[in-house]
C-alpha cells in the first residue's frame, strides 16, 4: 500500500478559463485544505512540457506560466501547504517519461480521444510529443507516487492510461513499485462546455475567445460573452430532465449551479420557467461576483513576477526531493 499523495497539473498554453477553475482548480484547493493538516502532500504543476506539444510563442509561454501560477495562488492554493512548480524545472518528469514511452504501446496512444481531437485530420503533421503526451502525463503523476489525481472529465482517459502504464511496468519488471492512481472527478462542473457550441468543451486553446470565460475577463467581457452565448428559444424547465436534449441550456445552468455550489435540480427550482433573457443577467452577475476577487488578486500578483518565480523555484526544489529517489529506484529496476 502507498501513502496517499495528490498531484495534478494545468497547461500554460493560454489564459485560464472558467472550465479550468470549476473543473480543476477549485478541487485542487479543496484537496489542499482537506489534506494539508494530515501530512498528505498536494503537488500542483504548470505543465509547460505538455503545452509545447503544440506551438507556443516563447515569450507567451513564460507569461502564461506565471499567470497560471498567479491563478493558482489567487484561487487559494498556498505555497506553504501545496508544492507549486513548473514541470520543466524538474527533469525527472522527462526522464521517467522516456521509460514510459518504452512501456506504453502505440495502440494505447492511438485510442486517446484528445490525440484524435487535437491532431485533427492531418495526424502526419502533428508533433511526436502530442502523440506521446499521455506517457509524460503518467510520468508527472507516478514520479511522485501520487495516488489521487483531481481532473475534469476530459482527462479521465489519460488517468486511465496512467493506470495501464503503472500496471504494465509493475508486471513487466515483476515489482509492486508504482501505485495505480485514481482520478478524482466529482461535482457538477467537471465538464464546462463552450459558450458557442454545446458539444465542445470550454478550452483555453479554442480559437474563439467568445467561446470561453477567461479568469482575467472583466465584468463587461463576461456579461457580453454570456449575453451572446448560444441557447435555444425555450424557457428553462423546472426539472433537470428538461435539459436532457438542450446542451447549451444545460451548460449555462450547470455553470450557475457550480458557481453557487448547488445542484442543477436546486437551481432549477429557483429559475425554472424563466427565459434566457432573464437568466443570463443573473448568471453574469454571479460569475462576475465569483471571478472578480480572483482576477484582481491575479493582477496584483502579476505585478511582482520575481515573487512568483521564487515560489516556483522553491516548489521545484521540494518536488525534486520527492522525485529523485523514485527515479533512482526506477533506473535500478530497469537495470540502468
Ligand atoms: P485546457 O483544455 O483549457 O487547455 P488543460 O488541458 O490544461 O485545459 O486542463 C487542465 C485541467 O482543467 C484538467 O484537469 C482538465 O480536465 C480541466 N479542464 C479543462 N477544461 C475544462 C472544462 N471545460 N471543464 C471542466 N474541466 C476542464
Ligand atoms: Na487540454
Automatic annotation (TrEMBL):
- Tell me which SUPFAM superfamilies the record gives: Nucleotidylyl transferase
Give the matching InterPro entries: aa-tRNA-synth_I_CS (IPR001412), aa-tRNA-synth_Ic (IPR002305), Rossmann-like_a/b/a_fold (IPR014729), Trp-tRNA-ligase (IPR002306), Trp-tRNA-ligase_bac-type (IPR024109), Trp-tRNA_synthetase (IPR050203)
Catalytic activity entry:
tRNA(Trp) + L-tryptophan + ATP = L-tryptophyl-tRNA(Trp) + AMP + diphosphate + H(+)
Q: Where is motif 'KMSKS' region found?
A: 201-205
* Any Gene Ontology CC annotation: cytosol
Pfam families (alphabetical) = tRNA-synt_1b
Q: Give the range the annotation lists for the signal sequence.
A: none
- Work out whether the entry's keyword set contains Protein biosynthesis: yes
What subcellular compartments does it reside in?
Cytoplasm
Binding-site list for L-tryptophan: 140
Q: Which UniProt keywords apply?
A: Aminoacyl-tRNA synthetase, ATP-binding, Cytoplasm, Ligase, Nucleotide-binding, Protein biosynthesis
Q: How does it assemble?
A: Homodimer.
The family annotation for this protein states: Belongs to the class-I aminoacyl-tRNA synthetase family.
The record's function comment reads:
Catalyzes the attachment of tryptophan to tRNA(Trp).
Q: Which PANTHER family match?
A: TRYPTOPHAN--TRNA LIGASE, MITOCHONDRIAL (PTHR43766)
Protein name per its UniProtKB record: Tryptophan--tRNA ligase
